[in-house]
Amino acid sequence: MCLAIPAKLIELKGDQGVVDLHSTRLPVNTLLIPEAKIGDWLLVHAGFAIQRIDSRAAAQTWAALRDLAEAAEESPPAGAKDRPDAAPRVTGETP
Amino acid sequence: MTRDEKETASILHRLRSSAAACPRTLAFMEVCGTHTMSAFRCGLASVLPKNVRLISGPGCPVCVTAQGEIDRMIELARRPEVTLCTYGDMVRVPGRRGSLEAARREGARVQIVYSSLDAVARARAEPARRVVFAAVGFETTAPATAAALLAARRLDLANFTVLASHKRIIPAMRALLQGAPRSGLGLDGFLCPGHVSVIIGQQAYEPLVREFNVACVIGGFEPVQILRALADLVDLARDHRAALINQYPEAVTPEGNQAARKLLDTVFQAGPARWRGLGEIAQSGMIIRESFARFDARRVFQLSEQAEREPASCLCGKVISGLALPPDCKLFGRGCTPISPIGPCMVSSEGTCAAWFKYGPRDAGGAPERHTLQEASA
Prior knowledge:
Chain A is of the alpha+beta class. Helices cover 20% and strands 34% of the residues of chain A. Chain A has one helix spanning 55-73; strands at 5-13, 16-21, 24-29, 41-45, 48-53. A five-stranded antiparallel sheet of chain A has the order 3-2-1-4-5. Chain B has a single domain, classed as Rossmann fold (3-Layer(aba) Sandwich), CATH 3.40.50.11740. Chains A and B meet through strand 5 and helix 1 of A and helix 2, helix 7, helix 8, helix 10 and helix 13 of B.
């Protein structure tokens, strides 16, 4: 899943940082965004920051992601007996 | 009406007006699993004019991974000395004999990781184990693997290797276009993937537009962003124009992420790769360079290239190529469901079959409706 998640960089030491993802702290590596600094919004993919974005773009991407994550938790369409259980998660799946 | 709703309505109006000016059916292909999911989720097909079709191409990394690659991962995982680390949804993909998940139940050490660096950390923590990181994914994911290889070299790790099955999307798009006269795939343009483009940049699509006279529009993942990109594609088709448009400029730059591209070039070189359904495509793979050979699981474990044997009757290959819809497959919704998937397009949460199963049209009994590509095109 070639999906990157917007998150805010809150700690940085060398190229090892921590992002805040809606109150969840996640490790992030900034090797690919050498100019990253604390307070930046980053697109994070498989533990690596791949782009800096502005806060508006971050909010937009987050809205789209939230819809997809909610979709994963919805009940199946009426009448569907074989409930799809392969719920897409925001993290932990094949990026 | 909110501002967003007004914008959506205005884009939709533009799209419908332009489509009405086209006398034939227009077909556009997205090559991104997240576009697949997002388009199905918001019911995009139901608002598009009848003569505009969005088809899914080879954009889900799990789905395009060839059967032989999966078999090699399972073969490695079954070795008693190996701990195989991989991303989450690879573990359920069936190989010739079971899946990684099944191998794990039988005692194999299979570890799901969040980041490639977690696999490196595991190798450091367990020097007696041989840690193999099995990596799939397009250009978005490959830099993380490259970083792990650099870390392994810096740490001089003797027990860490990578089984790399990374793929480059542009050669696959090129192969689809080159094969179109024979396969019958009629395409009016590509909806190009957002986060792959963050790495490779807008300019990467220029040769495709030039050589094949095909429109390429890069789009984000929100329904309105997808719609905007599609409206541009329809405008271009109406005007008989092939052009490259970036509708995701907040994240995609002309040249992409240069640090990531440099890292990829340090670690990998382009070479042939096998794709499910598409066969071998020149220059579409990322081969670990000779200078990193001691971390290349293919070389270290002397893995053989196995003959491809895809599940009988499974149409994933054709679905990935845009030549069949999931309901064209005899297995769809019968033998093959998200609970007991047979083909990878049903395993991956963003595979076309899984999306179709969840959001596609349903018959009166609630079962996924079975109609074919020919009917959908009519």
